[in-house]
UniProtKB/TrEMBL annotation:
<keyword id="KW-0560">Oxidoreductase</keyword>
<dbReference type="GO" id="GO:0050660">
    <property type="term" value="F:flavin adenine dinucleotide binding"/>
</dbReference>
<keyword id="KW-0285">Flavoprotein</keyword>
<dbReference type="InterPro" id="IPR020946">
    <property type="entry name" value="Flavin_mOase-like"/>
</dbReference>
<keyword id="KW-0274">FAD</keyword>
<comment type="similarity">
    <text>Belongs to the FMO family.</text>
</comment>
<keyword id="KW-0503">Monooxygenase</keyword>
<dbReference type="GO" id="GO:0004499">
    <property type="term" value="F:N,N-dimethylaniline monooxygenase activity"/>
</dbReference>
<dbReference type="GO" id="GO:0050661">
    <property type="term" value="F:NADP binding"/>
</dbReference>
<dbReference type="InterPro" id="IPR050982">
    <property type="entry name" value="Auxin_biosynth/cation_transpt"/>
</dbReference>
<protein>
    <recommendedName>
        <fullName>Flavin-containing monooxygenase</fullName>
        <ecNumber>1.-.-.-</ecNumber>
    </recommendedName>
</protein>
<dbReference type="GO" id="GO:0103075">
    <property type="term" value="F:indole-3-pyruvate monooxygenase activity"/>
</dbReference>
<dbReference type="InterPro" id="IPR036188">
    <property type="entry name" value="FAD/NAD-bd_sf"/>
</dbReference>
<dbReference type="Pfam" id="PF00743">
    <property type="entry name" value="FMO-like"/>
</dbReference>
Length: 298
C-alpha cells in the first residue's frame, strides 16, 4: 500500500476558512475530513488503538465566534429590547420606534440603514474613526496592489482621495477617518473599512443621527430609546489550550507565513485579514500539504 494512502488531513472547524481549505485540498485531490468542534469532543479509545490516518492537522476553530457586548452598568435598567447584531433579523419590527445602534463597523452601518429604511428613528454610536468606502473602490485598490504592483501606501492615498470626492466631508457629520489608510489598517489591525450600502447618504440627510459620545440611560428621560442593537463584534471561544498553541504559533511567524506551525500543524483565518487572508492561508496550506505528500510518496 502506498504511504500516501494512509495519510489524510483533519480540518477542525467548518466555517469559511475550513471550507476554503477543504476546497483547495479537493482541487489538489488530497484526502481530508472536516469536523466542527464542540466542548466535549474527544476520542473514547486509547490513542494507540485509534487507527485514524491523519498526518496533518489544520485548526480553523475561528478567532472570533461569540457575540460580545461591552459592559454597560445601566443597561439592566433599560426597559426596551437590547440585542447583539447577530440576533438582528429585520427593521420591520422597529418601524416607528427609536433605536440606537452601538458600533459603526460594517454590521452597525448596514443595520442602521435597514432600520432607517423601515421607518425606525435611528441613531448610531460611532466609537472610533472609520473609513467609509464603496465596494468598487476596495476592489480597485486590491487590483492595484496585487496586479499592478503599487505599494499599499500609494493605493491607500488614492483610495482616501477617491472616497473624499465621492462622500465629501463626513467629519462634520461625526465620522472621522483613521490616520492609517484602509488597506494598511486592515493588514496591521484587522479592522476593515466600512463598505457603504447607502448609510452615508442617510447620515448626510439627517435621517440617521450620529452620536460620538457614550450613551447613558437615566430612567428613559434622556437618550430615550425603544431598542438597542449592539454591533460590537465578537470574541474568541477557542479552547484555551488550542488558543495558547495558536497564539505561540502565529507570534513566531509574521504574515504571510503565520499559517504554518511545527510538526504538520496549520491554522487558517487567524491573520486578521478577512476573506482575502483566509483564501491565501487555504491555498498555502493545501500546497504545503500536497508537497509533503509528494515527498513521502517518492
Amino acid at each position: 500500500m502506498d504511504a500516501v494512502d494512509n495519510m489524510a488531513v483533519l480540518i477542525v472547524g467548518a466555517g469559511p476558512a475550513g471550507i476554503a481549505t477543504a476546497a483547495c485540498l479537493a482541487q489538489r485531490h488530497a484526502p481530508y475530513i472536516i469536523v466542527e468542534p464542540y466542548n466535549r469532543l474527544k476520542l473514547h479509545l486509547a490513542k494507540e488503538f485509534c487507527e485514524l490516518p491523519y498526518m496533518f492537522l489544520v485548526v480553523i476553530t475561528g478567532e472570533n465566534s461569540a457575540a460580545s457586548i461591552p459592559p454597560v452598568p445601566s443597561l439592566t435598567r433599560f426597559e426596551g429590547e437590547a440585542i447583539h447584531s447577530s440576533a438582528y433579523k429585520s427593521g420591520r419590527a422597529y418601524t416607528g420606534k427609536r433605536v440606537l445602534v452601538v458600533g459603526a463597523g460594517n454590521s452597525g452601518m448596514e443595520i442602521a440603514y435597514d432600520l432607517a429604511t423601515h421607518g425606525a428613528h435611528t441613531s448610531i454610536v460611532v466609537r472610533s474613526p472609520v473609513h467609509i468606502m464603496t465596494k468598487e473602490l476596495i476592489r480597485y485598490g486590491m487590483i492595484m496592489v496585487q496586479n499592478l504592483g503599487l505599494t499599499v501606501t500609494t493605493v491607500d492615498s488614492l483610495l482616501v482621495m477617491a472616497a473624499n470626492f465621492y462622500f465629501r466631508d463626513l467629519s462634520k457629520h461625526g465620522i472621522m477617518k483613521p490616520k492609517m489608510g484602509p488597506l494598511l489598517l486592515k493588514s496591521q489591525t484587522g479592522r476593515s473599512a466600512v463598505i457603504d450600502v447607502g448609510t452615508a447618504r442617510l447620515i448626510k440627510g439627517g435621517v440617521i443621527k450620529i452620536n460620538t459620545n457614550s450613551v447613558e440611560f437615566h430612567g428613559g428621560r434622556q437618550n430615550s430609546f425603544d431598542g438597542i442593537v449592539f454591533a460590537t463584534g465578537y470574541k474568541s471561544t477557542v479552547n484555551t489550550t488550542v488558543k495558547a498553541c495558536l497564539k505561540r504559533m502565529v507570534s513566531l511567524k509574521c504574515y504571510p507565513n503565520n499559517w504554518r506551525g511545527e510538526n504538520v500543524l496549520y491554522c487558517a483565518g487567524f491573520a486578521r485579514r478577512g476573506l482575502a487572508g483566509i483564501a491565501m492561508d487555504a491555498k498555502n496550506i493545501a500546497d504545503d500539504i500536497v508537497a509533503t505528500m509528494d515527498k513521502v510518496s517518492c
